[in-house]
Amino acid sequence: MKFIFACLGLFLGGLSILSAQDYRVYGTFQDQTGEPVPGVTVKVKNSNAGTQTDADGRWELFLASGTYDLVFYYSSPQPLYRSVAVNGDTRLDIRLREKDVLLDEVLVSAVRADRESPVSYSDLSAEEIAPRNLGQDIPILMNYMPGVVTTSDAGAGVGYTGIRVRGSDATRVNVTINGIPYNDAESQGTFWVNLPDFASSVESLQLQRGVGTSTNGAGAFGASLNLLTDAITEEAYAQISAAGGSFNTLRTSLRFSTGLMNDHFEVYGRLSQIQSDGYIDRASSDLDSYFLQGSYVDENTLIKVLLFGGKEVTYQAWYGIEDPEILENDRTFNIAGAIYNEAGEIVDFYDNEVDNYKQDHAQLHWNQQWGPYWSSNFALHYTYGRGYFEQYRQDDDFATYGFEPLQVNGSLLTTTDLIRRRWLDNDFYGTTFSVHYQKDRLRIITGGAWNTYKGDHFGEVIWARFASQSDYKDRYYNDNSDKTDFNLYGKVNYRLENGLGFFGDLQYRRVSYAANGNETGLVDDTFNFFNPKLGLTYRIDDANQLYASYARANREPNRNDYESGNPRPEKLNDIELGWRLQKSKLQLNTNVYYMRYKDQLVLTGALNDVGAPLRRNVGDSYRLGLEIDATLRLADQWVLRPNLALSDNRNLDYFFERDGALEELGNTHIAYSPGIIAGNMLTWFPTDRFQVSLLSKYVSEQYLGNIDAESSKLDDYFVNDLNLQYVVDTGGFFDTVTFSGLLNNIFDVEYISNGYFYTYDVQNPDGSTETFSGTGYYPQAGLNFLVGVDLKF
User: Fold this and answer.
1) Which residues span the domain enclosing 11?
2) What residues have CB less than 8 Å from 345, skipping those under 6 apart?
3) Hey, is 386 helix, strand or coil?
4) How many domains is the chain partitioned into structurally?
5) For residues 9 and 74, which has the higher predicted lDDT (pLDDT)?
6) What single string gives the DSSP state of each residue in 178-217?
7) 112 within some domain
8) DSSP strand pairing (223-229 vs 173-177)
């Protein structure tokens, strides 16, 4: 809590700090129709100096004599750059050309929010990601955004990583890449390990908390995350990056762009490799990825073809630690691959207990500007994924694999040691589309998507001590699934001259899912969802804006939910109230939300046999919270970015069967939902080329189950990272040389960011039932570091 009070003290104290510069640099910012654009962020590149446009699109800065690169961040995910020479008061008026709006905005504007949207959201640009982008996954790079909790199976941010927003796990966070769904269609999760170093090809990302605006793919029950990949670069360049650090982590990357050839064509590419031993024993990662993009652009057309993907081989680390004594004395212990002797003692570990998976993506985007008011986007996509995880199994039953009992030396054998591979081979393809109309204060977007998933799940025994009648390449199970997802949506924003704005958003979504398997049984479900959203915004004056919204969301169960029986779809009513303050030295966002669920599928805390979390319907539940985030410019060289999320998350009238009897537990805490999440980024710019950031994160205690058991409680933690970046403008062969350093957990805190909790019943000889429980934990690394260098030429 000291951290929170310190942030508030700095926040209030900094309100009185102002700066003065030699000359006034000012102007207006207008869209392509000549309308002023409020809320545009204007920054001096590689500097803390910045401001925002007012309601009439006016802005001003005070700068010393010299030449500056100004960066304008507006509704387009790609910022606008302008160079200005200052030797006196200087005026610079910006009026967007059609191509400024067209280039990449339409790729994601259908699923993104802006200042006229009555939802809570945060943006993160490539420029903000760069100092910390040293090989860790995207969730770890998002750790300091409001309401976010992240974790890493291997303990150091490389390999399998996870994210929760407002207490909702990754299966409830809708993720799109260039507007195309990325969540796995069956599990609804996102596996960033399949796209290693993807952050190096991201232009910007936006995280909407709550239901947000309509988007393609899985329903958003906690948040929506949209990523826009790299925009067209006009100048040719090449960039070599290398980074290394603790746990033998090594990342190498090569990026290049041809620049805009003949004013129309550009080719961009990236190759990356990441290796790490991980903090947890044997939790190694061997990751490769690629990204290739070809673009054609003219005044009214943008066509992009993208090919990207990755391959990961990671040693399994998804079981955590269940023994409290081991947790106390050997925090890096990993039970995966354990081989036991007859006394039940671990004598060795299988050296290939790995997850081995490859995923390739293809996207085709056509953006067209049909005039000053109309534009459209049409996209085709295809994803091919295939791979397996391998396991050494001891004394497994023959019946599991369809083996017949076997006579060996006069004894009947029904179990054997073996090595198995469980495969997934899937195809995901479809189309997304949207049409945009914008004139004066009216904006209309209509769009939708049609996507199909086909997945094959099968298992093979590749070695057995006793194989019975098994043949090579026999499959001991062979399951398949088909899922079709279709949606249509329409959005309207209309702003009156008095500052009042109206927002409407209607979505129809139809989901058909058929599967057969050990986890699902026979499934043949079709869901029809109608998701309305309504909201108001009111601009009080140039600096202050209020908003209110109501959103309805529905969501289908995922594959694992069917393992527990016949799950019902979830329903959510989300009410959001917010206030935004935008001044040259201070940007403040506050948001109050009430999310009321019916039949919410909450995490029980238990895992299935492959480490996937299990969920079940719980009837009525709610999340009530307050979110505050700010950007405060303290004089010329300091920026403070605190955020705070307070919440109360409850299951209503919760029942639990204990010792054979049904108990009413009342209103219990929802699992994985800490009441306090606070973050802060304090950045110092001693020069235009050097920055130092202290990053802090506090997460309060949380329950890993839904019955408020003390044994399921995860302690709170407070960790701090130190991040440095220094840019050298060589003026020689290399245009720039950038040095980066990241010191994680600088106070060497022993903390646990994730875990699981489960209960099980045992039948006593007298016929009574006794309920027991178990808890598992995922320890995170103590003090560790990464350093890197980028050579751009």
Assistant:
1) 1-96
2) none
3) strand
4) 2
5) 74
6) TTEE-S-TTT----GGGSTTGGGGEEEEEEEESS-S--SS
7) no
8) parallel
